Amino acid sequence: MDKKQLTWSEAIEKVMINNGYFATLKQLYEEAPKVKTYIGKTPDNTIREKVQRDERFTKIMPGLWALSEYLHKLPRHLNPLIQKSEIEQIEINHALIQGYMIQIGNMKGYKTYSPNKNALFLNEKLGDITSIDKCPSFTYDSVLQYVKNIDVIWFNERKYPSNVIEVEHTTNFRNSFLKFLELQDFATDMTIVAPQDRREQFEREISRPAFDAIGKKVVFRGYDYIEKNYSASMILKSFSL
User: Fold this and answer.
1) pLDDT tens-digit series, residues 118-162
2) Sign of the dihedral defined by the CA atoms of residues 58, 59, 61, 65, in that order
3) What stretches of 32-157 show up as alpha helix (H) in DSSP?
4) 3-78 belongs to which CATH class?
5) Over the stretch 9-21, which tens digit does the pLDDT of each residue have?
6) How many CB atoms within 10 Å of residue 86?
7) pLDDT tens digits, one per residue of 155-165
8) Residue 56 burial (10 A CB sphere; 0-12, 13-18, 19+)
9) Which of 69, 71, 142, 154 suits a disulfide with 163, CB 3.0-4.6 Å?
10) Are 27 and 44 in contact (CB under 8 A)?
11) Do the Cβ atoms of 89 and 97 come closer than 8 Å?
């Protein structure tokens, strides 16, 4: 097909085919304009509108779209046609959000770490997209034994934790808060990422006296917030949790 004749839907389709029949919005924002001659003033808005309204595309996970005709060809963990247990689906979503957090950290210039190295983010292992394999020994071992199990950590250039991030899909947040408590004496941002409908539960748990030391440091971010900011490639480098 001639490049000049591609519609936006055709450009999106081509990117997805080249990527294994699926793509994140960020990938579409970056790649689809490269296969079109006339782009227009708001290509990101056009791309987002096309994947949402054109039946040839199906949203399969937060921030992730696929070609409806080829859903059966997707990897098992991304294939919506393959029935999965609740636990398995939670693990898949967990890894996806962790992957977004790692990539955002990479884009912002942090050293990124995750203990969940074998979990699959799209078609890669989380260990393949983090920039460091081992949690830096920035403090006492008694603290590190808890901190090194936090889902995602962004380290600054001096290898101190700038932001610690826990993805909480169903649990009660307390285990995450206990890990964060170990860093109460550090100038470290603390982020909980969870479905938006869990915000009330988060507020209730963080207000417990046991967590007074970190109550004002921990912020809640919903999946929709992460999806929106991950997908917005034009503002990704300046994105602040």
Assistant:
1) 999 988 999 999 999 999 999 999 999 999 999 999 999 999 999
2) positive
3) 43-53, 86-107, 126-129, 141-147
4) mainly alpha
5) 999 999 999 999 9
6) 8
7) 999 999 999 99
8) middle
9) 154
10) no
11) no
Is the CA virtual torsion 205, 209, 211, 213 positive or negative?
positive
Tell me the CA distances in angstroms from 122 to 41, 69, 79, 219, one per residue in order. Answer: 30, 19, 11, 26
Q: What is the per-residue pLDDT across 208-240, written as a single tens digit (0 to 9) for each?
A: 999 999 999 999 999 988 887 776 544 445 455
Residue 208 in tokens: 């417990």
Taking residue 54's Cβ as centre, other Cβ atoms within 10 Å add up to 16
| Structure tokens, 198 | 């869990």
Expressed in percent and rounded to 5, the helix, strand and coil fractions of the chain are 50, 15, 35
Domain ranges in the chain?
3-78, 86-238
**Among 15, 50, 17, 20, residue whose Cα is nearest residue 35:** 15
